[in-house]
Fold this sequence. Notes:
Layout (H helix, E strand, L loop, with lengths): L4 H18 L2 E4 L1 H6 L8 E6 L4 H13 L2 E3 L5 H9 L4 E5 L2 E10 L3 H8 L16 H12 L2 H13 L6 H14 L2
Parallel strand pairs: 2-5
Antiparallel strand pairs: 1-2, 3-4, 4-5
Helix pairs in contact: 1-3, 6-7, 6-8
Amino acid sequence: xxxxxxxxxxxxxxxxxxxxxxxxxxxxxxxxxxxxxxxxxxxxxxxxxxxxxxxxxxxxxxxxxxxxxxxxxxxxxxxxxxxxxxxxxxxxxxxxxxxxxxxxxxxxxxxxxxxxxxxxxxxxxxxxxxxxxxxxxxxxxxxxxxxxxxxxxxxxxxxxxxxxxxxxxxxxxxxxxxxxxx
Length: 182
């Protein structure tokens, strides 16, 4: 498990700077908490991107390959695209290092689209990448994921971002989670 925030941040920034040239994205879940200052490890970074045509995905995939990323599922962009189209995730690694890796998935429903619409670059993270909103992170961790680690992450976020949190927005997203995921 990687605990070096700088290594994760560099990896995420390099990947996201390529993605941003091709489509809208949002990094979701644990890396936001780590970037916000919580000390915990992770092996992957989760990212949602807009659905795209096979041709657009080919251009994205080729640029990732040129920048020393590779996909663990396949080298063939059509096969990778099929995984994504079927609402499965794929993992990209850098320089053949299995850790950290980027778990990439297409937006699959209105909830994912909402995360892309409300994404933000949060100054407190010290990174220049788009994350799903604080409220989305809290709603997912408290309403859907609910593991001990996720609930501890949510508690941490509530302390760090206490003055920025919009409870009405969290409740709206929790309702969306119940409608689309539960």
